[in-house]
Amino acid sequence: MRIVVLNDAESVAHYGANQIIETINKKPDTNLGLATGSSPIRLYQNLITAYQQGQVSFKQVTTFNLDEYLGLTGDHPQSYRYFMNQQLFNEIDIDLDNTFVPDGSTKNPLKTCADYEANMRERGGVALQLLGIGRNGHIGFNEPSSSLVSRTRVKTLTKDTVEANRRFFKPGEFQPHLSLTMGIGTIMEASQIMLIATGADKAEAIKNTIEGPVSAYCPASILQMHANVTVVIDQDAALGLKDVAFYQYIEQEQSRLQAAIKMAG
Ligand code: F6R
Predict the structure, then answer these.
(1) Is 204 a catalytic residue?
(2) How far is CA 116 from CA 74, 77, 104, 155, in A?
């Protein structure tokens, strides 16, 4: 795992956006896996700014979102489809037909999930998957105890997750307790994964992800088994880590190595 500890949330957003921009500029028809929630909002703002400044185009990009609430239509303000349109897609030059979010209004969730997987496969899979992380270590809506080889399916949200997301719903408004989510096995098939987290309330989950055992009780810990993962966090999210100094030292050594390779070549 590559662990990048930065000063603050803005640096995390900037770093994360740059990784995505580099990926697209290397391969303009790249397939991205995207996340919703608070964590990626600033990163998406950085992407919008880069697009406005002509540093990147999304014209040929295809996106697959991790998850959606079951029971919300795409025009519901709390649906993840609506979030993506508002926070990113409507502000860039992406073709909306190439943006995929599981259909929360489906009457046949099993078929919708199977079709979502088939579509991802047919389009060549995800090159770079962006992830946030729940306070309980969930990725997508794969809550603790999710099978580490699970596929896209219906998941029941924990009370903690429902509570954490209540802030987005009006008092008394229907808040779904079920979701459609890419499975952990699905996520692990991405060629590259970047998990971002900021704030002290993510410190425990980050500690368990990086330094804990691989366990279905902290779904993000499975990332230890992926060959190309970068965890990008701010100082607060790094508070629980035992070995931050070592992770920073590795980054410095890597930069030195890269510089030496560049000079030599
Ligand atoms: C959202 C998602 C979730 C969030 C996680 C953190 O698509 O997959 O796993 O990344 O719940 O949410 P925030 O960023 O709001 O703390």
Answers:
(1) no
(2) 16, 22, 12, 15
Domains of the chain: 2-264 (3.40.50.1360)
Q: What's the one-letter identity of residue 120? A: M
Answer yes or no: 103 catalytic. Answer: no
Probe target for ligand 1 pocket from 12, 133, 196, with the most ligand atoms within 8 Å of CB: 133
In a 3-state reduction of DSSP, which class is residue 62? strand
Nearest 5°: the CA angle 68, 63, 15 is 100
pLDDT tens-digit series, residues 200-243: 999 999 999 999 999 999 999 999 999 999 999 999 999 999 99
Cα dist from 44 to 16, 49, 138, 148, 194, whole Å? 9, 9, 21, 28, 14
Burial environment of residue 199 by CB neighbours within 10 A (0 to 12, 13 to 18, 19 or more): middle
Q: What is the rounded distance in angstroms from the CA atom of residue 26 to the CA atom of residue 131?
A: 21
Q: Ligand 1 in contact with 13 (CB < 6 A)?
A: no
List pLDDT tens digits, range 100-114: 999 999 999 999 999
What's the CA gap between 153 and 175, in Å, rounded?
Answer: 19
Handedness of CA 45, 46, 50, 53 (dihedral sign): positive
